[in-house]
Amino acid sequence: CALVLIISLFATSCKSSEELIKQSCSVFEGDYNDPNHPGCKRHIDCDGTVSGTDGTPGCNHGEPQTSWELHGFINESKQTITIDFSPKGGPADLVGHWTGSGILFSDGNTWEKLGSNKKVSEA
Q1: CATH classification of 27-113, choosing from 2.40.128, 3.10.350, 1.25.40, 2.60.40?
Q2: Among 12, 120, 34, residue whose Cα is nearest residue 83
């Protein structure tokens, strides 16, 4: 009986740790659909790292793709992310604002956040 109780307590404490990790992660973390690059991967990690792929112009139907990774800074209190797109030829400080369903960038583009069961749309 004592062994079952110990295992049960350990499982409960592990679950609580996993929940704490999830709670500490940013609202920005996840996968996105970028309408300017149909079908291309867009992902933001909790630390602000942004990764993805680009095609010509999209990533559908066997188009060649190039992978990339960018650095970003998440400001949770302002619900903004600032991404350095200069390695891709873009601005060094593009600001995006969390909308509740995605990110509205200062250049007018919006990335829609994908749910756990959604795929990047093929437009």
Answers
A1: 2.40.128
A2: 34
